[in-house]
Each structure stands twice: as structure tokens, then as C-alpha cells.
From TrEMBL:
Keywords: Membrane, Transmembrane, Transmembrane helix. The chain crosses the membrane at residues 20-40, 60-80, 87-106, 112-132, 144-169, 175-195, 228-251, 305-322, 328-347, 368-386, 392-412. CDD domains: MFS_OFA_like. GO terms for cellular component: membrane. Residues 1-416 form the Major facilitator superfamily (MFS) profile domain. This is OFA family oxalate/formate antiporter-like MFS transporter. The lineage of its organism: Bacteria, Pseudomonadati, Pseudomonadota, Alphaproteobacteria, Hyphomicrobiales. GO terms for molecular function: oxalate transmembrane transporter activity.
Length: 440
């Protein structure tokens, strides 16, 4: 790092190998915050057994976490643009550790909810910063870079699901919260010292007809005034709501289906259906994010969205009809999360393509708040399931995903292309008019 004359710290130099190192460190940081969302389902029933607060009340903490995580990202992104990623990620590391320490001592819902706010602030600081940094380092491979970074969040819990479940069973959920919370926070805090943004703006290598990218860097206020942003926001909410509900409720769903502890043998491995499902979900989710990001770099963002959202609808329909079969439950949820997680690579990449790199962290942060909006439906899923059963919840999610798939091709694609070409034409016209005025 190099200090400027005003005392500010400049960004890292542009080196090809260095940007891959930055990507890897961002992925590791994301893996360290993954359990705050994807490991949560393991704690719901043990917390309820200890305090008898009820699933709906406990799951409200999950909603508070996601809302805080997402809706504060634009503010945290502003700090990144002003002070750099290091201090924001350090802050995130401290907060995620504090969150799970508080969870380990929570003996009231108030304290549980307070811990969710603290954890949301920490996770959002890490998530928004790492994804935004990846978009800046890889404008030529936005889908792959955003997908690989998001994969850390999607698959980061895969290696720790079994240890956490084991620790909960042997030592209690409080001990699991305390041990993993401190460990995860410490890793993030240390890596924060080495994460830097690029010094120079890196242009895409070539223009692709199926991958329209703007040449203009739109400011956040300009983005908020663009109709295409709100269409993307709506589709994000539609898809994210089903995935967040399934991630948060997969434990209760398995218990209600009476298959949670049913042994399932697959590829030579045997585990209880719930543990097997969660482990495979994290692996498929982690693989799907960079894979679909890479696919979208090749065939276009909207075509990839159509494939992923359509597949998600089919898997949710399968769970609705045959989810009480342990093998179907494990495989269908795995495939579902394999295509669900791509929203966290496709939407950041699409946002960068549409609105430019300069303000990518803040602009993507604003779009990412759609996840928080979607999380408001998670407690509602518990209410619907209590009245009509989980099939009703799955049917609603199927409709949302199918609609989103159609909107990707027939609404987002033409609107986004029109927006990019129209704004570039306006910019070129303004530049020509300015040149003529100066000549005159």
C-alpha cells in the first residue's frame, strides 16, 4: 500500500496474479460468514427446545439478520468507497464474532434479536465489500468473479455443518455458537489486513453482442432513477424469497415430514436426511454460483437466469409433490440450491454490466437490499405452513420462480439493452454537441 500526500491510502497496483489473490481472500472471508445464514437452521429447534419460544418467534431473528445484512450494505459500501475495504471488513469480523457470542448467552428473545442485528451488520460489511471488490478487479469476468466470491458464502458452511451439528448434539448449541463465532470472526479480521481495491479501472477485453456492457459509470442516484434497476430488484425479490424460506426452514420442514433422522445412502455415504441435505445443499450452492456466473459470461445474463429460475421452479414443485421421500428430499433440495445461489452471481454481474464499475460496490449494495426485502416473507412461510401445510408454501415459491424466469427473457433483456444503448447514444450526442459549440 502507498500513502498519498493527504494521508489517504491508495489502492493496490494492477497485477494479474494479485487480483486472483484478492479474489481468493474475498472467498475465504465469505466462507467465514456463511454459517450466520446457512447454519442457522441447525439451531432453531435446539433453541426452541431450551426456551420454548416457538419457531415463528425464533425465525424472526433470521429475518432481522437478513434485513440488517442487506439494507445496510449501501451505507457500508459508502464507507468502502471513502476509506477502502480493509477497515470495513475488520469491522465485519468483530461484529460476526460478537453476534454468535451473544447468541450463546441469549436467554430472552430481545437478546436473540439484538444478536441478529449485530450479525447482520457484520455479515453485510463483509459480503458487500468482497463482492464489490471482485466486480472492480474482474470487469472482464464479472459473472465468474462474483460467482466465485458468492460461492464462499454459499458453500462456506458445507465443511462445518457436520461439526456444528455434532457439537450441538454433544456440547449444546450455546457452545457451538461461542466456539464457531470466535473462530470465524478471527479469520475475517486477520484477512482484512490484506484486501485491497485496484488502483486503475480495468476495461473489459472485448465487447460481446450477447453480453451488453455500458461504457458509462452511473452514480447511485442515477441508478435509483432507472426503471431497469427496479425491474431487476423485483425479480431478485421473487427468486430470493423462495431460497431464503427453504434455507431457514429446511430443518423444520424435514422434521414435519418426519424424515429428518431417516438414514439416506448416496454415493457410498450414509447420513441422516437433514444433515445430508444441508451438506449437499451447501456444496451444490457453492458450485452453482461460479458455474452459472461463468455460463452467463458466455451465453448472456438473462438466458442464464431463465435456465436457473425455471429449474428452481421444477425442483420446488418436486419437493411439494414428493418431498416426504428422504432421497427425493435430499436430491431435490441439492439441485434447487445449485440453481438458486446463482442470483448472487448473476445480479451483481448484471448490475456491473448495466451501471458500470466505478460505483459498483454501492450500486450492487442497493440491489442486494432485495434479499432483505425477500426475507420478510420467511416468517410468513411459517404462518402459511401452520395453516395450509408446506405444500402451499412450495406452490407459491414455484409461481414466483416461473414468473421470474419469463421476466428475465421478456422484460429484463430488452429493457436492459435499450437502457445501455440509449444512454450511450445520449452521451455521444452530448459530446458531439459540446464539440460543435467549442468549435463555433
Amino acid at each position: 500500500m502507498i500513502s498519498s500526500t493527504d494521508g489517504a491510502v491508495t489502492a493496490a497496483p494492477l497485477r494479474t496474479g494479485f487480483r486472483w489473490l484478492q479474489l481468493v481472500m474475498g472467498i475465504v472471508c465469505m466462507a467465514m460468514i456463511a454459517n450466520l445464514q446457512y447454519g442457522w437452521t441447525l439451531f432453531v429447534d435446539p433453541i426452541d427446545a431450551a426456551h420454548h419460544w416457538g419457531r415463528a418467534a425464533i425465525q424472526l431473528a433470521f429475518t432481522i439478520f437478513v434485513v440488517t445484512e442487506t439494507w445496510l450494505v449501501p451505507i457500508e459500501a459508502w464507507f468502502v468507497d471513502k476509506y477502502g475495504p480493509r477497515i470495513v471488513i475488520m469491522f465485519g469480523g468483530v461484529m460476526i464474532a460478537l453476534s454468535w457470542v451473544l447468541n450463546s448467552y441469549a436467554d430472552t428473545l430481545t437478546l436473540l434479536y439484538a444478536a441478529a442485528v449485530v450479525g447482520g451488520m457484520g455479515a453485510g460489511a463483509v459480503y458487500g465489500t468482497c463482492v464489490g471488490n471482485a466486480l472492480k478487479w474482474f470487469p472482464d469476468r464479472r459473472g465468474l468473479a462474483a460467482g466465485a466470491t458468492a460461492a464462499g458464502f454459499g458453500a462456506g458452511a458445507a465443511l462445518t455443518i457436520v461439526p456444528i451439528a455434532t457439537m450441538i448434539a454433544t456440547s449444546g448449541y450455546q457452545h457451538a455458537f461461542l466456539t464457531f463465532g470466535i473462530g470465524q470472526g478471527l479469520v475475517v479480521f486477520v484477512l482484512a489486513f490484506f484486501i485491497q481495491p485496484p488502483r486503475l479501472s480495468i476495461p473489459p477485453k472485448k465487447k460481446q453482442l450477447n453480453l451488453p456492457q455500458t461504457k458509462i459509470d452511473f452514480t447511485p442516484p442515477q441508478v435509483l432513477r432507472s426503471p431497469i434497476f427496479w425491474v431487476m430488484y423485483l425479480v431478485f425479490v421473487m427468486v430470493a424469497s423462495g431460497g431464503l424460506m427453504t434455507a431457514a426452514q429446511i430443518g423444520p420442514i424435514a422434521h414435519d415430514y418426519k424424515i429428518a433422522n431417516t438414514p439416506v445412502t448416496l454415493a457410498g455415504f450414509q447420513m441422516a436426511a437433514l444433515t445430508f441435505a444441508i451438506s449437499l445443499d451447501r456444496i451444490f450452492d457453492g458450485f452453482g454460483r461460479p458455474f452459472f456466473g461463468w455460463v452467463s459470461d458466455t451465453i448472456g445474463r438473462e438466458h442464464t437466469m431463465f435456465i436457473a429460475f425455471g429449474t428452481a421452479a421444477v425442483m420446488l414443485l418436486t419437493l411439494s409433490a414428493y418431498g416426504q421421500n428422504p432421497m427425493v428430499f435430499v436430491l431435490a433440495t441439492a439441485v434447487y440450491f445449485g440453481v438458486f445461489g446463482e442470483i448472487y452471481s448473476l445480479f451483481p454481474a448484471t448490475c456491473g454490466d448495466t451501471f458500470g464499475s466505478k460505483f459498483a460496490t454501492t450500486n450492487n449494495g442497493m440491489l442486494y437490499t432485495a434479499k432483505g426485502t425477500a426475507s420478510l416473507l420467511v416468517p410468513l412461510a411459517s404462518v402459511i405452513s401452520a395453516t395450509y401445510g408446506w405444500k402451499a408454501v412450495f406452490v407459491v415459491a414455484v409461481a414466483l420462480n416461473a414468473t421470474a424466469a419469463l421476466m428475465a427473457l421478456f422484460v429484463i433483456k430488452p429493457l436492459r439493452r435499450s437502457f445501455i444503448l440509449g444512454k450511450e447514444a445520449e452521451s455521444a450526442s452530448a459530446a458531439t454537441g459540446s464539440a460543435k459549440t467549442e468549435t463555433a
